[in-house]
Write a structure and sequence with these properties.
It is built from 21 helices and 32 strands. Helix content is 31%, strand content 23%. Strand 13, helix 12 (349-360) and strand 14 (363-368) form a beta-alpha-beta unit. The structure holds adenosine-5'-diphosphate (ADP) and zinc ion (2 copies).
Length: 745
C-alpha cells in the first residue's frame, strides 16, 4: 500500500443528516481543501444530494465509511463555526430520532426555526463600516470625489457606523463599495445578540402573595430534591395557585442568573399567562409559538440562545429552544393533548421536556389539576416527585358539581328548564355564566327523516356539520364547504332535519331567551385571529353579566373571576367513547370546565352537568370524588387491561386512495416481522381500518403494537420500520409511525 492511500484511509469522513425522510446518515468528504478537524456536530453544512444542494447537519465524524472513498463526494461549504444547538439538545435530537423512529434530518428541521434550516446566520448580525487603516484623512481623495470625501470624513469622525445609520445619513451602498474598492473603508459583521443578562436586583419579588402551607411545602420539597435533575408532578386542583408555585421556583432561578422555559398548551388562548409573568418579574419575558412567523421565531430563539431572555413561554415546539444558562422547565396543564404533535415527528413535548431536563441536569415541574395517568403512574413509581395542592388558594372554595338528569325532560337547544332557571338566577345576581358545548357549528348532522339519508363529506368518512354563520355545511376534517340542500338528494323530501347540538345553536337560543344579556361564543370559528380572542377575553374579565358559550377552548387555564355558574350541556359523549382514553379525557374536561366557576372569594360557584345517564358509575365517580381518586380508579382498570401506562403503544398507519393497497402493505409488513416467539411480549392488532377510515379521499389503515416492555416493543418496531423502508410502497401510499399515540383516530 502506498503512503498516500494510507494517509487517505486515516482521514475522517463527515456523517451528515440531510433534510430528507430517510432514516440514516450520509457520508461526505470535507469541502475541498479543508480538514475534518474543526467540524463540530450540530453545525450546518451544504452538501450535494442527488441533483440538489441541501443544507444538512453534521452529526459526527467517522474513520470508516461503508462507501468507497473514491465514491464519496466532498461537502460544498460549512455554514457555521459553532454548533446551532448545545450538546444536551443535540443528544435530545438524536434521542428523539431513535425513540420516535423518525428520520434524523427531519428531527433537526423540526427542532429549529425555519430560517435556520434555510441557511440564515446563527447570530443576528448587522453590517458595520469604518475607515480602513490606510485612511488618514479625506484629503487623500481627489477634491472632485466630493461624496466619497464626505463619507470618509464621516467614517473617520464616527468610528464604526452601521449600514442603517449610513443610509440615514444619505450614503449609498454604491458609494461604500467605491470607497472600499480604494482600500479606504472596511466592512465587518457584528453580532447584535451578544450574550446578555438581566439586572438581578430589580427582580420584582416584593409584589407577591405569601404562600399558603401547601405551596410552601411544594416549593421546599422541590428545592430539597435539587440541585440537578428532578421531575415533579404538581397535582393542584383548579385555582389552587400552581402558577404561584411556578413563579417562586422561577424567581430563584432568575436570581441565580438562570433561564426558565414554560410550556403551555395554546398561547393564543392564554395571553393572560404571559401578562402574569411580565407583571411579576422585572426581567425579559418572550413568547415563542406558532402564531409568530419564521423570522419572529428566529429572533426570539436567538435571544434565548444568547441568554438575553429570562423566561420563554411557548407552545410545544418551544421545547427545542436552546438556553445559554438553563435553570428550570415548567409544563403547565401537562395532561393537555396539544403537547403531542400530530404530524411529521409525532413527539410529545412533555416527554421530550423531561428527557431534556435530564440531559441538561436541571429541574422540571409538570403541573395540572387533572394530570395524565402516565404522570400519576410515574409518581407512583418514584420517578416523579409528587407535590399536591388539594385546596384553593386565595380564599375561594371549589365549586359544587351536580348532575342534572335530562333523560325525560323537554329541552330547548339542549338545555333543560331547570338549567335555564339557574342561568337566569346567576345573571340576576350580577354574575357570569359559562355554557360548555364541545362542538362548534350549529348541528353535527343533517338528515332526511323519510328515507334516512344523511349528509356526508365526499372525501372523508364523517358527517358534514351544519353551520349557521355563515349558513353552509362544513367538514371538520378537510374544511370542505357545501351549500345546505333544500331537499333530500335521494327522495326529494324538502323537510330535512338537523340533529345534535353545536355552539351556534346554543348561542342563538340563549340570545332569544336572554335579550339584553351579551352572549359571547368562543370556539375556533369565532376566534380566528388572536386580537379577536383577546378582545373577547377582555370583555369577560371586565365582569359584567354575560353568558359565554364555548368549546374546550374555554376550559383551558383561564381565570374568569365573574363566572359563578358552569353548565355542561352534554356529558354523555365521553361515557361511551370507543377510545380507551375516552373516560380520562371526559373527566379532565369536566373538571377543567368546572374549575372556571367561583374563582373569586365570596362568590361560590355551581356546576351543573346535564346527562341522560345520571346513574352511570363513571359519571357518579367524576362528580362525587376528587379527580385524583377517579384517576386511581382508572389506573386500576388500565392495569387489569394491560393498557398504558401499564403497556406501551405504537401505531403504524398507511394511507392510500386505494383501500386494498393500504391494507395489504401493512399485512405484508406484519407477516414479514411477526415471530411466534415474540407473541407473548408484543401484541399485534390489525391491520384494520382507522376509526376515521377515509380522510381527504385517502383510506387509512392501521396496525397497533402493544407491549408491557418498552425495549421489546422498540426492537420489533425497529425491525418493522426497516422492513417498511425497504419494501417498495405502492404509488401514492404514505405511511407513518406514531410512538405513544394519543388519539387512535
Ligand atoms: P391554578 O393555576 O392552580 O388554577 P392560579 O395560580 O390561577 O391557580 O391561582 C388562583 C388564584 O389564587 C389567583 O387569583 C392567584 O392570584 C391566587 N393565589 C394563588 N396563590 C395565592 C396565595 N398564596 N395567597 C393568595 N392568593 C393566591
Ligand atoms: Zn330522503
Ligand atoms: Zn372532509
Amino acid at each position: 500500500m502506498s503512503g498516500t492511500s494510507d494517509s487517505h484511509q486515516r482521514e475522517r469522513v463527515l456523517r451528515v443528516a440531510v433534510p430528507r425522510p430517510l432514516r440514516r446518515l450520509f457520508d461526505y468528504l470535507p469541502p475541498t481543501g479543508q480538514k475534518v478537524t474543526g467540524f463540530r456536530p450540530g453545525c450546518r453544512i451544504k452538501v450535494p444530494f442527488g441533483r440538489h444542494v441541501v443544507t444538512g447537519f453534521v452529526a459526527g465524524t467517522s474513520e470508516h465509511s461503508a462507501i468507497g472513498r473514491e465514491q464519496l463526494k466532498p461537502a460544498l461549504a460549512m455554514l457555521d463555526s459553532r454548533p446551532l444547538l448545545p450538546p444536551a439538545l443535540l443528544e435530545l435530537v438524536h434521542w428523539a430520532a431513535d425513540y420516535y423512529q423518525h428520520p434524523i434530518g427531519e428531527v433537526f428541521a423540526t427542532a429549529l426555526p425555519a430560517p435556520l434550516r434555510e441557511g440564515a446566520p446563527l447570530h443576528e448580525e448587522a453590517e458595520f463600516w469604518s475607515a480602513a487603516a490606510a485612511a488618514a484623512s479625506a484629503e487623500q481623495l481627489p477634491s472632485r470625489a466630493l461624496r466619497q470625501r464626505q463619507l470618509l470624513e464621516f467614517l473617520i469622525e464616527r468610528g464604526s457606523v452601521s449600514r442603517a445609520d449610513l443610509a440615514l445619513a444619505g450614503f449609498s451602498p454604491a458609494l461604500l463599495r467605491q470607497l472600499a474598492g480604494k482600500g479606504l473603508a472596511r466592512r465587518e459583521l457584528q453580532r447584535l445578540d451578544e450574550e446578555t443578562d438581566w439586572p438581578r436586583s430589580q427582580l420584582n419579588a416584593t409584589a407577591r402573595p405569601a404562600m399558603n402551607e401547601d405551596q410552601a411545602s411544594a416549593v421546599e420539597r422541590f428545592q430539597k430534591a435539587g440541585p440537578g435533575y428532578r421531575c415533579a408532578l404538581l397535582n393542584g386542583i383548579t385555582g389552587s395557585g400552581k402558577t404561584e408555585v411556578y413563579m417562586r421556583l422561577i424567581e430563584q432561578e432568575l436570581a441565580a442568573g438562570r433561564q426558565c422555559l414554560v410550556l403551555v398548551p395554546e398561547i393564543g388562548l392564554t395571553p393572560q399567562t404571559i401578562d402574569r409573568f411580565e407583571q411579576r418579574f422585572a426581567a425579559p419575558v418572550a413568547a415563542f409559538h406558532s402564531g409568530l412567523n419564521g423570522n419572529e421565531r428566529l429572533r426570539v430563539w436567538r435571544r434565548v440562545a444568547a441568554g438575553g431572555i429570562a423566561i420563554v413561554i411557548g407552545t410545544r415546539s418551544a421545547v427545542f429552544t436552546p438556553m445559554a444558562r438553563p435553570g428550570l422547565i415548567v409544563i403547565d396543564e401537562e395532561h393537555d393533548s396539544s403537547f403531542k404533535q400530530h404530524e411529521g415527528l409525532r413527539y410529545s413535548a412533555r416527554d421530550l421536556a423531561v428527557m431534556r431536563a435530564r440531559k441538561e441536569n436541571i429541574g422540571i415541574v409538570l403541573g395540572s389539576a387533572t394530570p395524565s395517568l402516565e404522570s400519576f403512574r410515574n409518581a407512583e413509581l418514584g420517578r416523579f416527585l409528587r407535590l399536591d395542592l388539594p385546596r384553593r388558594a386565595g380564599g375561594s372554595r371549589p365549586a359544587l358539581l351536580r348532575p342534572l338528569d335530562i333523560a325525560n325532560q323537554p329541552l330547548s337547544a339542549g338545555i333543560c328548564e331547570l338549567a335555564m332557571m339557574k342561568i337566569a338566577q346567576h345573571l340576576e345576581a350580577g354574575n357570569q355564566v359559562l355554557v360548555f358545548v364541545n362542538r362548534r357549528g350549529f348541528a353535527p348532522i343533517l338528515q332526511c327523516p323519510l328515507c334516512g339519508w344523511t349528509s356526508q363529506c365526499e372525501d372523508c368518512s364523517v358527517y358534514l356539520t351544519v353551520h349557521s354563520q355563515p349558513p353552509c355545511q362544513r367538514c371538520h376534517h378537510c374544511e370542505a364547504r357545501r351549500a345546505i340542500p333544500n331537499r333530500c338528494p335521494v327522495c326529494g323530501n324538502s323537510d330535512l332535519q338537523v340533529s345534535g347540538l353545536g355552539t351556534q345553536q346554543v348561542e342563538a337560543n340563549l340570545v332569544r331567551e336572554f335579550p339584553g344579556t351579551p352572549v359571547l361564543r368562543v370556539d375556533r370559528d369565532s376566534t380566528r385571529g388572536r386580537d379577536r380572542f383577546r378582545k373577547l377575553l377582555a370583555q369577560v374579565i371586565r365582569g359584567d353579566p354575560a353568558i359565554l358559550v364555548g368549546t374546550q377552548m374555554l376550559a383551558k387555564g383561564h381565570h374568569f373571576p365573574g363566572i359563578t355558574l358552569v353548565l355542561v350541556v352534554d356529558a354523555d359523549n365521553g361515557l361511551f367513547s370507543p377510545d380507551f382514553r375516552g373516560q380520562e379525557q371526559m373527566a379532565q374536561l369536566i373538571v377543567q370546565v368546572a374549575g372556571r366557576a367561583g374563582r373569586s372569594s365570596g362568590r361560590p360557584g355551581e356546576v351543573l352537568v346535564q346527562t341522560r345517564h345520571a346513574r352511570h358509575e363513571t359519571l357518579k365517580r367524576i362528580i362525587d370524588s376528587s379527580y385524583s381518586e377517579f384517576a386511581q380508579h382508572l389506573l386500576a382498570e388500565r392495569r387489569s387491561a394491560v393498557m398504558p401506562p401499564f403497556s406501551h403503544l405504537c401505531l403504524i398507519r398507511a394511507e392510500c386512495r386505494d383501500r386494498e393497497a393500504a391494507l395489504s402493505f401493512l399485512r405484508r409488513a406484519r407477516r414479514a416481522i411477526e415471530t411466534p416467539s415474540e407473541q407473548q411480549f408484543v401484541h399485534w392488532t390489525g391491520p384494520l381500518p382507522a376509526p376515521l377510515e377515509k380522510r381527504q379521499s385517502r383510506y387509512r389503515m392501521q396496525l397497533l403494537l402493544r407491549s408491557p416492555s418498552r425495549p421489546r416493543l422498540r426492537a420489533v418496531l425497529a425491525r418493522l420500520v426497516a422492513q417498511l423502508d425497504e419494501s417498495a410502497a405502492p404509488r401514492g401510499l404514505r405511511w407513518q409511525i406514531d410512538v405513544d399515540p394519543i388519539d387512535l383516530l
